[in-house]
Amino acid sequence: MERYDQRIAIDTLSSPESIAAALSGLHPADVADALGRAGVDGEILTRILAELDTELAAEVVINLDDHTLEDVLDVLEPPEIAQITSELESDDAADVVGLLDEDKKAHVLSQLDSDDRKAVEDLLQYTDESAGGIMASELVYVNSEASVDDAISLIRLAADEVEEIHNVYITDRARKLIGVLPLGTLLLARKGTRVAEIMEPDVVFVSAETDQEDVAKVFMKYDLVAIPVVDGEGILVGRITVDDIMDVIRDEADEDITLMAGTRDEEIHEDSTLKVSWIRLPWLVIGALGGLASASVMSLYSFSLEKVLALAFFIPVITAMGGNVGLQTSTIIVRGMNADGWLESDVRSRLLREWRIAITNAVVLGVAVFLIVGLWLTDWVLAAIVGGALGTVIVVAATLGTIMPFTLRRLGVDPAVAQGPFVTTLNDVIGILIYLGLATLFLDMLS
């Protein structure tokens, strides 16, 4: 509660110096949060950071959201950015430098010492969403011929540069990863013991090119707190820790949520009305085209609607049910693909499972609607059409909700799109087509 009160107080402070003084005792994450709540612009924010201790300022910077960080980097000069990044671990430093334009990036890199510059340049060669893009190059590793004493000495030497050492990695003379030695095992080992004798040879590792989502799955599968990263030749190049993976999981979840809504993360911090409209318009156009397609289908069956007006009463029921079933099914499939690693080979088993569920629901809801419509309108043929169409739509929607995520992933499209307007609109069109098609088939039997 005390920290929360301090965050509120900075809104009314008049100078960057007094704001910095009020924040200096807080955790860097709380400082970043406080500054975000205060809503200060990039110019004032940089003046506040200048008043903080350099190490604290660096930690605050990496806790700022990307939008605020970009505002700060626009104002800071290359020497100031270089001073901040020199206090950061290589992965965080690369994240900061990666946000700069090419000219400013070159100036900042030229200001770093040779070791820091090489570490950042090596990380910048990887894509943002790969294991290489989120790993840190700082780690402790020893040759397999080293002793326990050698390993402990290396840890002491690296303590200032490597935060939260969980494991010592064991390599051969070519620096190829051959084992891992947990810190607890190392500390309990007898002096003089060779690390090769007590290491764990079955190492869980990832390639630098591995997608960050797949890295997160490996972390969850093996309950890891850190994982080594190797290049294409098996050479140890870095490590990823669980705090990086928490950021990945959050970012991927945010991305999926916005895709489900037919938009993108960028609009959260975007003030331009035109830019936000441009982000949303493609999906709204898809929705509009889908609505026109539904209207076109209805026009094809206008004769049936004119003859039996009651048919129009139940179109919302059919479209809503198709959309709901499709959304439920695609949500489960996308979740399974992301969390449990379902592959294209799982389509058959998942489809059979969803069919069993859909048929059960179709029978229950179809019969219920049949009885309600029959008793309401005393037209049992119409009731049978509505109930039968509803059941059919449920099965079709479940089929689409299962197949589409796998199909989209094979095409290189994020499966979360299947939970947005695309599949919902498709289910609407197909649902109306099934319903009015069935009604037209039995039109002569209707009252």
Keywords:
447 residues; mainly alpha; MgtE N-terminal fold; CBS-domain; Tetracycline Repressor, domain 2; three-stranded mixed β-sheet; 22 helices; 6 strands; 6% strand; disordered N terminus
Compose a concise summary of this entry.
This protein is mainly α and 447 residues long. The chain is built from 22 helices and six strands. Helix 15 links the parallel strand 4 and strand 5.
What does this structure look like?
This protein has 447 residues and is mostly helical. It has three domains: 2-128, MgtE N-terminal fold (Alpha Horseshoe), CATH 1.25.60.10; 141-241, CBS-domain; 265-445, Orthogonal Bundle (Tetracycline Repressor, domain 2), CATH 1.10.357.20. Helices cover 65% and strands 6% of the residues. The protein contains 22 helices and six strands. It has a three-stranded mixed sheet. It is elongated. The model is unreliable at 1-9 (pLDDT under 50).
The CATH architecture assignment of the largest domain turns out to be: Orthogonal Bundle
pLDDT < 50 stretches:
1-9
Q: What is the subunit arrangement here?
A: single chain
Q: Main β-sheet: number of strands, strand sense, barrel status?
A: 3 strands, mixed
CATH top level of the largest domain is Mainly Alpha
User: Mean pLDDT, nearest integer?
Assistant: 86
* Strand order, sheet with most strands: 1-2-3
Assign an overall shape. elongated
Order of helical and strand elements:
HHHHHHHHHHHEHEEHHEHEEHHHHHHH
Cα(first) to Cα(last) distance is: 70 Å
CATH topology of the largest domain: Tetracycline Repressor, domain 2
Q: How much helicity do the residues have?
A: 55-70%
CATH superfamily of the largest domain: SLC41 divalent cation transporters, integral membrane domain
